[in-house]
Amino acid sequence: MVVKIELQECLRDSPKFRLLLEHEEQSIDQLEQRLDKILKVCGSMIDSGKTYVGQQSLFANSLWDLSTHFKDDPEVLSSLNKLIHSLQEMNKFHTILLDQASRTVLKNLTSFIKKDIKTVRDFKQHFEKISTEYDNVLVRNSHTSRSKQQEVDEVEHILLAVRSCFGHQTLDYVNSICVLQTKKRHEILSTLLSYMHACTTYYHQGSDLCDDLQPFFKSLADDNRFIFMVVIKYEVVRKRSGEEQETVMEDDLRICTVKPVIDGERRFCFEIVSPSKSHILQADSKEMYDAWIEALQKGIGAAIQRIRSSEIESHKKRENRNSSFYGSDNDTSANNNNNKIKKIRMWEQLLKIPGNNFCCDCGCPNPSWASINLGITLCIECSGVHRSLGVHYSKVRSLTLDDWEPEIIKVMAELGNNISKQIYEASVPEGVVKASRDCPGTIREEWIRTKYVEKKYVKRFPRFSADQSSPNSSDGLMEVRKWSVRKIRRRPRSVNSREKKGKIVEKQQIANESGEPVDSATNVNTNDDQGKIRDNTAVHKSLAETQNDLLLFGSGLEKQRISNIDLSSDQESTEGEENEIVDEEDISKLHPNLLLYKASAAHNIPIMCEALALGADKNWPNPDDKGRHPLHAAVLSGSVMPCSYLLLNGAKINAQDQNGKTPLLLATQEGHTAQVCIFLKYKADQHIEDEEGKVPLSIAEQKEHADIVTLLRLGRLNEEMKDSESGVSGDDMFNYVVRDFSQLAYSNPEKLHRTKNDAE
Amino acid sequence: MSTKDDEYDYLFKVVLIGDSGVGKSNLLSRFTRNEFNLESKSTIGVEFATRSIQVDGKTIKAQIWDTAGQERYRAITAAYYRGAVGALLVYDIAKHLTYENVERWLRELRDHADQNIVIMLVGNKSDLRHLRAVLTDEAKAFAERNGLSFIETSALDSTNVDLAFQNILTEIYRIVSQKQIRDPPEGDTIRPQNVEQIDVKPTMNTDSVRRQCCQ
């Protein structure tokens, strides 16, 4: 605004002039206040800006720190350094901008306040002083009496002088106001203008910098994409050449699977899954996507194929290695690879078990999951349902990803989908919708739940419900007075340890059976051939059949047995056994509980499975046999399998019989190293005393069974290490030794036998 | 078993080897429990004991495996040596045969143990001066030739027992701690997994960077 004070008014000192003046003064005060405020805000703006810049430079510094991480990767290092440098450049620009703000806004406005406004204030002071003086003179003039001419003259002179002075001062003052009011318009605008210039420069510099960097950014992005492509290619290349060295994304395609990712937002995604991780990759197009998946699948297939030939060699190699505790473990990767190979082999072996190459519940081919307590293989969908049943019904494991202990593999080998179906699908009523490959989830769930939880399709003993005179004579059940369970025999791996049963080892499973001398009338002695003929001619609907008046469980199993499976045999199981069946029981005692107990004693897993399916109590203490549980009976059978099977199905590991003996104590007493091993693995309590106050360790020491002593002591050491806070190493060591022992028990059982014999 | 040591910085597995009857178990009981049994029976299987010592202000827990010297207990050889970072190879100074067999034990170590295992040759029963059959200098020279440390002990009168264990554990500690600075551990060895790695990053850049930017 322009000052509108007329000079005439100034000189007249009219009320209007005073009013205007007051108005102008207020305006200047206001201006000053607002400018002060601007200065204050601007100051704090600059301060916080400086803080920000400081933090940003710390950020850059921390990035420099990061870059040292890549000191061995020149490619990343140079890119990273360039990026950090750009950031620092931008930071510098920001600093300059803040500097400009402080120089323009702060400095100019401060000087405007300090100088220009102050000038006006000074003039105002003078004006006010002269104004007061003028007033005084006027008053004096009016008070001067006419009689004193000399005084009158003097006053008139003063009045004249003061008036003229007042006039000057007024004009000066008004002038300064005018100047200020004019100057402020220019001053403020120009200040802001230069600040804006600084801002423009700042953004311009940033823009220039970005322009300069644009090619770099682009190449960097391309690089990244390029690297990604290379990674994939490595996989392809490697799987073709079979080289283990060029580990990029996955060490080993053989343990990977490829599957499409459908639920993700992005298109054309697929996933490469390996035991330890998964990678989700995206293709450019549907065609590329299909090509990738196909290529990878082929690659995996080819890689797996190639293993088999090189497998034996690498296996030998591994055995000659020692781990190195100081050096970088070169052989860990080799071991890992070997594990992977082993896993794949194991998978193949398990799928060879009759029925196992199709999901046990829906028939989907090549299942990659298993239920270890049911001994079956499953597809991924069914495994999901099994998981939802809870671990007391089904313990699900991956055939490809998980580690498999030998004793679990053995249980799997004993059962299999065919046997399981004979038990769990023995009597499926017509019209029941079975789960099929692509059936809806509800049907699948219903089927699996009915099958394993309600156990609806398990064939009950007709012999129970039917009284003795029931018209079942066609089955010959009328005559049946006794029942028994056949012992399972597997072909031993190493024949040398089994000379004394030379005849028996010829057959994978012997089909003969012998009655107990107690009942001579039912004592049937058949040789292998006769047994086989009988088996072949019999009609097997269940796993049991009748022979004369003996109902023999497990005799019908032979047909499902496979001849060439390369899974470990149960070496210990038949030590010193002369009988092929367990003691006979009266048919009136045929009950799932006793069946389970007997089957455990006969280490006949399929019959144990059937007994459990029939609702046997896995912790049933047999009142006729010292209150022993099936697990005790399994221990006394000498075999690891039934112990493992019972433990998998939730048998109590620390169960005590009437004499207070736990399975662990019994196994120690019997000198069954491999059983001790798995009991310790399942964390059996070795401090439970029997009625004589003995614990397993004292018994093992007394019996001088070195291996069991070692295992038990190791278990104690492990407890001790665990009690102390950081017992990881102890645990590892324990697990390792236990693993060592169990491997030994399965692969070279004669070593353990020798030890035992030597010690005796 | 020994007293519980709840916290330790390092855990080292040390094995005791040597012929039957040279006094391995008594060395162990002397070191871990300060006990000695003149009538002790031959060891069945493997015995374990632990004891912690201090080196450089660090607590080192020794997990000592003592096996029977007899052949018949050797089913678990691989597990016995697995992860062992030290071995006390014990012979009886009064029985020359046990000294002659040291070579055989060294071979066994070479076959089964880690190649970097620290081995100390221990001539035990040094109290049997009048029956001495192996000269100290001879054994010392043998140890030097084979890169072993050497000490004579008596589990009976406690001479040098603590020192023997102390020495081997210290030696292992030196190697392991230096190794840890050189390259951080990986893998599944017995090396202490509870020890926090202090990663000393090179301090390059940070200073120069600070100068070069904005301040």
From TrEMBL, chain A:
Tell me where on the tree of life, at the top rank, the source sits: Eukaryota
**Keywords for this entry?**
ANK repeat, Metal-binding, Repeat, Zinc, Zinc-finger
Give residue ranges for domain PH.
267-301
Residue ranges, annotated region (Disordered): 313-337, 491-533
InterPro entries cross-referenced by the UniProt entry: ACAP1/2/3-like (IPR045258), AH/BAR_dom_sf (IPR027267), Ankyrin_rpt (IPR002110), Ankyrin_rpt-contain_sf (IPR036770), ARFGAP/RecO (IPR037278), ArfGAP_dom (IPR001164), ArfGAP_dom_sf (IPR038508), BAR_dom (IPR004148)
Any GO molecular function: GTPase activator activity
* A family per Pfam: BAR_3
Q: Which spans does this entry mark as compositional bias, Polar residues?
A: 322-334
ANK repeat start-end pairs: 626-658, 659-691
SMART domains assigned to the protein according to its UniProt record, in alphabetical order: ANK, ArfGap
Please tell me whether the keyword Zinc is annotated for this protein. Answer: yes
Tell me which residues make up the Arf-GAP domain. Answer: 338-468
Q: Where is the composition biased (Basic and acidic residues)?
A: 496-506
Q: Which GO terms describe its cellular component?
A: cytoplasm
Q: What Gene3D superfamilies would the database entry show? A: Ankyrin repeat-containing domain, Arf GTPase activating protein, Arfaptin homology (AH) domain/BAR domain, Pleckstrin-homology domain (PH domain)/Phosphotyrosine-binding domain (PTB)
What name has this protein been given in UniProt?
Answer: Arf-GAP with coiled-coil, ANK repeat and PH domain-containing protein 2
UniProt source species: Sitophilus oryzae (Rice weevil)
From TrEMBL, chain B:
First-listed, main subcellular location of the protein, grouped into a coarse class? membrane
| Family annotation (CDD domains) | Rab11_like
The protein's topology relative to the membrane is: Lipid-anchor
**Keywords linked to the UniProt accession:** GTP-binding, Lipoprotein, Membrane, Nucleotide-binding, Prenylation
Q: Does the keyword Magnesium apply?
A: no
The UniProt family comment states:
Belongs to the small GTPase superfamily. Rab family.
Q: Which GO terms describe its molecular function?
A: GTP binding; GTPase activity
Localization (cell)? Recycling endosome membrane
Record-given protein name: Ras-related protein Rab-11A
What species is given as this protein's source?
Sitophilus oryzae
Which Gene Ontology cellular-component terms appear in the entry? recycling endosome membrane
Does this UniProt record's set of keywords contain Membrane? yes
